[in-house]
Amino acid sequence: xxxxxxxxxxxxxxxxxxxxxxxxxxxxxxxxxxxxxxxxxxxxxxxxxxxxxxxxxxxxxxxxxxxxxxxxxxxxxxxxxxxxxxxxxxxxxxxxxxxxxxxxxxxxxxxxxxxxxxxxxxxxxxxxxxxxxxxxxxxxxxxxxxxxxxxxxxxxxxxxxxxxxxxxxxxxxxxxxxxxxxxxxxxxxxxxxxxxxxxxxxxxxxxxxxxxxxxxxxxxxxxxxxxxxxxxxxxxxxxxxxxxxxxxxxxxxxxxxxxxxxxxxxxxxxxxxxxxxxxxxxxxxxxxxxxxxxxxxxxxxxxxxxxxxxxxxxxxxxxxxxxxxxxxxxxxxxxxxxxxxxxxxxxxxxxxxxxxxxxxxxxxxxxxxxxxxxxxxxxxxxxxxxxxxxxxxxxxxxxxxxxxxxxxx
Length: 409
What we know:
Helix content is 31%, strand content 27%. The chain is α/β, with parallel strands linked by helices. It has 2 domains: 6-147, Immunoglobulin-like (Sandwich); 178-408, Aminopeptidase, CATH 3.40.630.40. Strands 15-12-16-19-17-18 form a 6-stranded mixed β-sheet, with helices on both faces. A 5-stranded antiparallel β-sheet has the order 1-5-6-9-8, with no helix packed on it. α3 (200-216) packs across α8 and α6 crosses α8 (379-408). The termini are far apart. The model is unreliable at 1-25 and 163-169 (pLDDT under 50).
């Protein structure tokens, strides 16, 4: 078994001065002016983070790609940028943000095999300020692989594993609302696509809330959000939320950016092992990679027996998904006119793998398109888009009930 490096530290201290207690009542902050990377003897790299107060923390390393992961209990990132840390040999991109409620994460890409030599946090007894120092030293590829690995709780946001039944489709009383799970893509440490000051995670959270309110006003829908704040939610957790909520339908919202070609207009994606085109394949890989870059890698967690049962469940779910995807594309065209020239596509998006829940991924638009960016940042246009999704859902409920009635005869 691989030896896992995971250093976990917690601190409990008391301060008698009322002024100090007041200063420490907020979240810890990183001083970008005094924090940073420095290079040492024989390729060693030291990361120093100066914090306004001590916090519980841990550090571990992962591979494919190589990266250093630092978790904190919790950090206020306002005013801090990755550029403040500077650069060092063997150090790649730095990502940070809220990772789960109460916890923050920093992920540092490694362009060389650098192992953790020492890691320690020192707290000043007088001021309460703290300094975290992690020293990385060059190691062989084999030694890095032996040290790398997630801590014992890589599935921290997942429920206990259980196989879904072959079909969970139930008769719903006429009075019961349709349960819609809205999944604003990305979040926390994962910003998604970025264009200037606009990023995908914030834009989709805003639109997700607007869509939720639009649906609730009809009185016909019960809406569940996979996230209602700027937090990271793993792909598998998003799927499990749909199961826990007893979802009738799952809608994942995105606004990606593509450098290949000129993608513009809304696009509706459904699940398939084979991508309908190269652009769809690239998007699916990018969405799954967001989990890996954030320190979650469950790509090898699939079970062959479970997959057989899931495929059986999809025999019933897929026609219902396709029905909604078609209605959604039609309503978007009629309401907004902002539809991709090839609006219905499919690829292996992990977030669509709730086998017993009809699921679609909606690229509301592409941040790489100037026209889409203007539409996405216009609240009036977003209201039209929310209305189109509402109308598609209402039509889908009616036609789905008719389809169900035919099956009962």
